[in-house]
Write a structure and sequence with these properties.
- The chain has an eight-stranded antiparallel barrel with strand order 1-2-3-4-6-7-8-9.
- It is globular, with a radius of gyration of 23 Å.
- It is mainly beta.
- The protein has one domain.
- Helices cover about 10% and strands about 50% of the residues.
- The longest helix is centred in the N-terminal third of the chain and has 17 residues.
């Protein structure tokens, strides 16, 4: 009988602790949807190659890095230095060196041709930088870009596009 009483108390304790008044987590809006689209022209990409988000990661050490892998395993890395910060309305200029020696840069890796393109000019416009509703200390960054890049030995490529709600 003592075992049955103990099990009953344990069961009801677990039941009470597992219940929440907000099990749906319906905070009145949809979670942020990350988006990335880019059009790349030139090199092994040919004409009007459409790069779409496959996966991404971010790193906010020594500036901000957005690393995107598209649906075809090509890799695009944006390196933002600290110059001007990361607020809405800031424009990052390719080649700018901040006070710590970090450079705003973009690298495009064509996996099919096994060629890496390094940005030679361009800009990245931060259109929005807001609080991330899903992370207490996190931010969501959105913007657009126009980049020219070279491989050092081959043709020049151009890339234009936008990114939306990248969490960092």
């Amino acid at each position: 009988m003592k075992t049955l009483k103990t099990l009953s108390i344990l069961f009801f304790s677990l039941l009470i602790l597992s219940c929440s008044k907000d099990d749906d987590n319906d905070s009145g809006g949809d979670p942020a949807k990350t988006e990335f689209t880019a059009t790349i022209n030139g090199g092994g990409f040919g004409s009007n190659y459409a790069a779409r988000l496959g996966s991404y990661s971010t790193d906010s050490n020594n500036g901000l890095t957005l690393a995107i892998t598209d649906e075809n395993a090509n890799v695009i890395r944006f390196f933002f230095n600290q110059t001007g910060g990361f607020g809405s309305g800031i424009t990052k200029i390719v080649g700018d060196v901040d006070s710590n020696g970090f450079v705003t840069n973009v690298i495009i890796r064509d996996q099919g041709a096994q060629v890496t393109y390094n940005s030679s000019e361009g800009e990245i416009n931060i259109l929005e930088n807001r609080e991330n509703p899903d992370s207490e200390d996190g931010r969501l960054i959105s913007g657009n870009f126009t980049i020219t890049a070279t491989s050092g030995v081959g043709p020049t490529v151009t890339m234009t596009g936008n990114f939306k709600d990248f969490a960092y």
